[in-house]
Amino acid sequence: MLSERRLEVLRAIVQDYVGTEEPVGSKALTERHRLGVSPATVRNDMAALEDEGFIAQPHTSAGRIPTDKGYRLFVDKLAGVKPLSSPERRAIQNFLDGAVDLDDVVGRTVRLLAQLTRQVAVVQYPSLTRSTVRHVELLPLAPARVMLVLITDTGRVEQRMVDCPTPVTEGSLADLRARLNSRVVGRRFADVPQLVQDLPESFEQEDRGTVSTVLATLLETLVEETEERLMIGGTANLTRFVHDFPLTIRPVLEALEEQVVLLKLLGEAKDSGMTVRIGHENAHEGLTATSVVAVGYGSGDEAVAKLGVVGPTRMDYPGTMGAVRAVARYVGQILAES
């Protein structure tokens, strides 16, 4: 275990290096921070931190920079989440409140996160597998054609055309709509097949074919949207950090183009907890010079998806974590109220 003083020295090195982009020396540390000890003691502490792998010396400088291990300790033990100012919180709320539908919410969230953090923002669409049914609408289009509209609790809307075996009257369609919603509204998608399996038997014989056809389309809608979707923005921000990538920025850009890589980065959104993966903790070799800060969002404690940012390991972790958490909270509120 590091002593409290050495933890303070590590914190100071991380803060200075993130702020200046320059390796940090003992003289600069004692001038900028009230560490309460002599430069010689700071040099000894830095030597100990280097021996334990928390900081390293670049070939071109006498100063030191944090390693992945040093950033990890900084985040785990030292970095608080920096609260946003009242104007920042109001700006987030006003910007997101203007969204007109789910695509607009996701698009605005990506732009907002990229602007707030000056990193690459990634937002996953709410997963259907973790959603519940808000409403099923059935609209007559022609005597034997119906539009089925499925609305989820996260604001997602899916539309399907249904060609019925026989003409459908307004009255029978209204009856089916009412009985169907009474069974599925507020229920998880995974539970719907079992909830509606005996529904055709409750109708007259001549209506059962239409009911079965509508239900088949509904169940197809529930399962066919299995591919997770996400949106990415702010990739151009990486050009501000070319010095943070040892060889070239190309592997990072190539990794960000692969949706499956991004989904793995965000991880499975089982809860609303925050994850921070630093440098070599990211399995994809193109991203070993980056850090990922991600958090789940949704209504209540259970996340329906994740959002986060990707940037260099030389990142303002407290500020980034604060921005990501605040945006996730507002997006969750919007989905709950939509």
List descriptors.
single chain; 338 residues; alpha+beta; five-stranded antiparallel β-sheet; three-stranded antiparallel β-sheet; 12 helices; 10 strands; 44% helix
Write up what this structure looks like.
The protein is an alpha+beta fold and 338 residues long. The protein is 44% helix and 17% strand. It contains 12 helices and 10 strands. It has helices at residues 4-20, 26-32, 39-51, 68-78, 86-97, 102-117, 170-184, 192-196, 208-224, 250-256, 259-266, 317-337, and strands at residues 55-56, 65-66, 120-124, 133-142, 145-152, 157-163, 230-233, 274-278, 290-297, 305-312. Strands 7-3-10-9-8 form a 5-stranded antiparallel β-sheet, sandwiched between helices. Strands 4-5-6 form a 3-stranded antiparallel β-sheet. A hairpin with a 4-residue loop joins strand 5 and strand 6. The longest helix has 21 residues, at 317-337. It starts with a helix and ends with a helix.
Overall spatial form: elongated
The residue-averaged pLDDT reads 86
Helix count from the secondary structure assignment: 12
Which regions are unreliable across 5 or more consecutive residues at pLDDT < 50? Answer: none
Q: Strands of the biggest beta sheet: in what spatial order?
A: 7-3-10-9-8
Task: Give helix % range.
Answer: 40-55%
For the biggest sheet, the summary is: 5 strands, antiparallel
Spatial gap, N to C terminus: 49 Å
Class per helix and strand makeup = alpha+beta
Q: How would you spell out the order of helices and strands?
A: HHHEEHHHEEEEHHHEHHEEEH
According to DSSP, the number of beta strands is: 10
How much of the sequence lies in strands comes to 15-25%
Tell me the radius of gyration: 26 Å
